[in-house]
Amino acid sequence: MNREQVQKQLAIDEGIKYEIYLDHLGYHTFGIGHLIIEGDFEHGLAVGNPVSEDRVTEAFQHDLDIAIFECKVLYSKWEYYPGEVQEILVNMMFNLGRPRLSKFKKMKYHLDAQSWKYAADEGRDSRWHNQVGSRAERLMKRLENVEA
């Protein structure tokens, strides 16, 4: 899996802001969708406070490590998936989180069978695909085009 490629894609999909802002649920956030938690230096700072590029990168790398870990927990055959499949699933993990991504049971079945096209079909057959639209379709196109 190419971590730089994942970062570039998520910067597009999630957006990137070098200041504290409120996400769509009203939570304090910065960088590439980094939810500020109590242990963060930025905790308690006001919306609009600037955040350095280095700090955005540091927070993203930490969040990426968590997303990869969550994928490894969810997908027992993770290590056998091609890098492209891993990148797609990490993107989905960022967007959905493990509780919601774990509901894609038929998709997981096809992923484990390395049936990428059928896994993509199952990804399309979801509320997520309808809600997210172009991002979801782009990811499913990538998935169905993975070489066996």
Largest sheet: 3 strands, antiparallel
- For the CA atoms, what is the radius of gyration? 16 Å
Low-confidence stretches: none
Classification by helices and strands: mainly alpha
The backbone outline, from C-alpha atoms, is: elongated
> What portion of the residues fall into strands of 2 or more residues?
5-15%
Helix count, DSSP H or I runs of 4 or more residues = 8
- Give the N-to-C terminal Cα separation: 16 Å
- Overall pLDDT score: 94
Question: What's this entry about, in short?
Answer:
By secondary structure, the chain is mainly alpha-helical. The protein is built from eight helices and three strands.
Description:
The chain has 148 residues and is mostly helical. It has eight helices and three strands. The protein has helices spanning 3-14, 53-74, 83-96, 98-101, 105-112, 116-124, 127-132, 134-144; strands at residues 17-22, 28-31, 34-35. Strands 1-2-3 form a three-stranded antiparallel sheet. Strand 1 and strand 2 form a beta hairpin. Helix 2 packs across helix 3 (83-96). It is elongated, with a radius of gyration of 16 Å. The mean pLDDT is 94.
Produce the secondary structure layout.
Layout: H1 3-14, E1 17-22, E2 28-31, E3 34-35, H2 53-74, H3 83-96, H4 98-101, H5 105-112, H6 116-124, H7 127-132, H8 134-144
Antiparallel strand pairs: 1-2, 2-3
